[in-house]
Structures are given as structure tokens and as C-alpha cells.
What does this fold into?
Amino acid sequence: MSAIIKTENLHHVYGAGTPFERMALNNVNIEIERGEFIGLIGHTGSGKSTLIQHLNGLLKPSHGRVLFNGVDIWENIKRVREIRFKVGLVFQYPEHQLFEDTVYKDIAFGPSNMGFTKSEIDERVREAAEFVGITDEQLSKSPFELSGGQKRRAAIAGVIAMRPEVLILDEPTAGLDPAGREEILSRIRGYHEKLNTTVILVTHSMEEIAKNASRIIVMEDAKVRMTGTAKDIFSHADELESMGLAVPQITQVFLRLRNMGLDVDPSVYTIDQAEREIMEVRRKYDA
Amino acid sequence: MLKDITLGQYFPGTTSIHRMDPRMKLILTTAYIVVLFVAKGILSYMLLLAWLLTTVRLSRIKISVIFRGVRPLLFIISLTALLNMLYTPGRPALEFWILTITYEGIFVAIKMVSRIIMLITGTLLLTYTTSPIVLTDGLEQLLNPLKKLRVPVHELAMMMSIALRFIPTLIEEADKIINAQKARGADFETGSIFKRAKALIPLLVPLFISAFRRADELAIAMECRCYRGGEGRTSLRQLKYSSIDLKAMLFSVIVFTAVIVLRVLGI
It folds into this structure.
């Protein structure tokens, strides 16, 4: 299986040649397979946002390459724009980019830039709206009449409507209440499961990542520090903590239990796993 | 790409020019501009140039930095020079096709160009060495007497400092929106003027909305801290003239008076 997205020795320097020069990406090599659900996690300023802007060609590498389906996206400058349709990027607070007078028109912005006919656009808009749970009635409203969570979902639909092969979301749940968060995450999960689209979710929250991602990439200080499944990553809780990233609360509890001398697996990260683990331990001690 | 725009950029420092009272700097810069237009002979220009170079030297601002500030106006400066050379009557120095360049024209052109460059350098020096906030403070203090004439001096100064404060914020915001719309295939760079103007709508609408939102939030935050306009409001930074200001004033008064005297004498 070949990777849908791959970076080779990717470097990015902001403000090269000025006193404000800063290395934002330092030799980043990642490989993402088709259909994966990747969690990208890192502290503020670790380079996550810079990295994802390279994946759809918004930023040009200072050094190194970004490959999409095995082809360097900067090989032909004229085709970079097409890459943006294939690698859909939802920015932080995407509701701030809504501008049309109806939600429908706003979602149609991407597909119409791709040059589709009216009926094709209509099909895509309705499909995308359904994925994020925007009703027909809401489609004809002004985006500014919607609630915060609805606005955010409408904005995400604007990217989904381009039917990207890779969907990247930069902290899609920031600033929402727990119900709004869960709504967005379950919509994204549903979208991923139904179309088997590759999804990259950028977040601060280990809980969110643990629940959704099939593989996790941890960044710190412009570098990729770890990659692996949630179980692999959370077994390095100390290292994560030194990067200022908290492991999920349930994992913290199990780490403490282990430190207290109990023979438990500390890489537990969901309530179900925790329950099973506790039952297991009880059985061991009872015996 | 938008971050490259600099507008009255301030270079922090601790030189005597930096430490001068903003009011004195404003007064002297204004006086300098007026005198620059009074000046006529070569000697006067030399005097003002000496004044300018001394100030530049004292402020430790690099010449290359000043040149960068002048560069955007190079086109206008060269156009002025060209027109002056061609349209000043006098003895012809160079004839070419239907165009005639006169000796007088060359002289006037040199004078105009140096006047413009000296003018820009002088004002750049003011903004390079004075932070925008201090500058508005100084302006407010200077205009204070106008309050008697019911000019809303404090409000104007407040508006100015808020505007200055939000320039970087709005630039950053615009950058973000541009990227977000580009991610949806917006094309800001190619096409006819018409097409490009239309392409700005997805940028301008969200930018305006966010500016209004910020204004609203700022107004509420100010009210929460009991802002009631300028009436009886004291300032965190009390402006005080110091010995540096006195020295600067004396030096400038001597130079400027000399220039005026030379003009009166017709030299």
C-alpha cells in the first residue's frame, strides 16, 4: 500500500534572512496511508499548523518535499491549486470565513471554484450538509442566523463539499461546549467511516484523539517526536508530560495505581478498557 | 505576504532621540518641515541636511533602514525630477527629439528631489524613534488647548491609538482568511481586474464582520473598566520635558533661524 501523503525531510523557516528567523518545521518525515484517521497533537507553537498548511500547498517547503499519491505537489506550480481540492483543510474557527448570504451558497463556494455544473454543485452541497447535520431549512438561512456550533458545522461542510481525498481539521472543537464537541466529532467519525476518507485531526485534547484516531503523531519543537497507536503513545506518559501534553485522565489514574505497586497496564485510555483492566486485576488478587 | 507591510514602524531604542519628549519631537519635526519649504539657497539646504544627519546619527537608525522607507516613493520622486527638468524654461543643456532639458531645470530637479527626500527622512525619523502610543499621547497633549474650542481632542487621540493598535491584528486576521479561502480554491492572484475585485468579497466580508465584532468586544471591555471619555482622566505616562529636549530645541532653533535669516537676506 502506498502512502497518500508523505513528507520527505520537510523543513520550514519563517522570516528567513531577518532577525525574526524561526524554524517551524525541522526535518519532518511522515507517511499517511489511505483511509487512516490520524491524530496530530502538540503544544502551541510545535509546528502542527505549519505542517498541515504544507500538506495542501498553502505553504511552500523551505527544504524537502511533500508527496501526494507519490507525486511532489510543487513539481508543477500550476497544479498546486488542484491539490487544495484533494486535500481539504478546515482551519481553526472556520466559521469566521463564512461570507455568503445563505449557508447553501457558502458551502457551494468550494465546488463552484472547482468548476462544476449547477446540478453537480447542488448534489455536493446537499451531501455535505447531510454529513454535518445541516437541515434543508438551515441551508436557505443566512450563516449569521445559525448558532455557534451550527456555523462551525456549516463551515466544515464547505470543505467536505469539495469531496477531498484527505480531510484535515485544525482543532475543530475549540471553543464549543461538550455537546457541540461530541456532535462535531461524531459527524467527522461518521464521515470517515462512510467514505473511508483519510482524516487528520489536529487537537490539544488527548481524550479526543484517543477516542477517534487510529494512529497518533506527536510534535514538539518543530519535530515529530512519536508516532504510533494510542496504546503505544500513552505508554510514554512521562515523555508526553515533559512536552506539556497531559495524557487522558483515565490513563493518569492507572499510572498512579501502577506507581503505587499495583500490577496494571498503564496504557489504558477509555472507560471500557479501564473497567476490563480493573476486573482483571481484581481476579488476579482474589486468586 | 501581508506581514511585509510596515506602517510607521517603530524601532525600539534608548538613544537621546528616543528619549526625547514626543511633544518636542512633534514640534521640531513640524518646524523642520516648514523651514524646509522656506529654505532657498544651497547654504540653507546644507544647514538643514546637517541638522538631519546629526539627528539620524544620534538616533542610531541605519541609513539602509531609512532608504527602505524612502524606496516606495522613488517612482514619484523620479517623476517629479523628470517633469521639473523638462518643463523649467531656461538655457538648454540637452536637446533630444522634442524634449529639452535646461540647466535651470536640472537645478530645480535636484532641489525638489533633495527636499522630498529630506522631508520623508525627517518624518520617518519621528515614527522610527517614537512608539505609536507615545506619539498619540504627545499629540493629545499638544492639541489640548483646542479643547476650549470644543474639539474632541481626547476622542480623536483615542481613535488614533486604537486604530494603530489594531493594524497588526487585522493584518493577521486577513492573512488567516486568505488562507482559509485559498483552501477552498479561491484565487486572489490571477484574472482580470474585475475578477480579482470580485475575488476579494470572500476576504472582505469576513474581515469586516470580525472588525465589527472586535469593536463591540473592545467597547464592552472599556465600559467594564468604567471608561467615560477624557474628562478627568489621568495618564500612566506623564510627559515631562528634560534637558535633552532643551538641548534639541536650542540646536534646532539656531539652525532653523539661520535658514530663515538666509532667506530674508536672499542668499
Remarks:
- The mean pLDDT of chain A is 89.
